[in-house]
Amino acid sequence: MGDVFFSVRMLVITIVVAIFLQIKVGGMTLETRVHAWVQSNSAVDTLRDVSRGAVKVIRVGYKTVVNLIDARIAAGLSRDQTAGSRPWSLDLGGNDVFMKEQGRVTPPAGRGSAPDSGSAAED
Predict the structure, then answer these.
(1) How far apart are CA 16 and CA 10, in angstroms?
(2) 104: which DSSP letter?
(3) Going by C-beta distance under 8 Å and a sequence separation of 6 or more, which residues neighbour residue 20?
(4) Which residue has the higher pLDDT, 82 or 24?
(5) CA 11, 17, 21: angle at the middle one, nearest 5?
(6) CA dist., res. 33 & res. 24, Å (int)
C-alpha cells in the first residue's frame, strides 16, 4: 500500500510543479526562465562535458573488453573455426564421387575446372 501512496504523492507533486511553472512573471513563464537559465549556466556546460567524457570512456572500455574476450576465445580455436577468418573461396568443381557417378570425368586437379563435355563414362 505504501508504494501506491508514494506513486500518487509523486503524481500530485509533478502536477503542482507543472502548474506552478506556467505562471507568467514579466511576460515570460517560469518554465521559460528556468529553461533559459539551464542553457546559459556554466555548471550545465561542465556537466555536459563530463557526460560526454563518460560516454567516451564507456564506449572505449566496452570495445576493449569485447576485443579482449574475442582474442581469448580466438586463441583457443584454430583459424578455420574462428568466424570472419575463414578463407573466401568458391569451389565449382563439385564432389569427385558425384561427378564420377554422373558420368563426368574430372580433371586431375579435381576442382575448379569445367568437366569434359566430350567424354562420358562407359557403361
Answers:
(1) 10
(2) P
(3) 30
(4) 24
(5) 145
(6) 10
Nearest to 18 by CA among 31, 9, 8: 31
Average pLDDT of span 74-81: 71
**Spatial separation of the C-alpha atoms in residues 10 and 4, rounded to whole Å:** 10
| Domain ranges for the chain | 1-40, 43-76, 89-114
Q: In terms of pLDDT, which residue wins out, 83 or 33? A: 33
| DSSP H helices in the chain | 2-20, 30-40, 42-75, 96-101
Q: pTM of the prediction?
A: 0.39
Q: d(Cα 123, Cα 117) in Å, to the nearest integer?
A: 17
Q: CA–CA separation, 43 vs 82, rounded Å?
A: 49
Query: What does the alpha-carbon distance between residue 7 and residue 13 come to, in Å, rounded to a whole number?
Result: 10
pLDDT on residue 81: 66
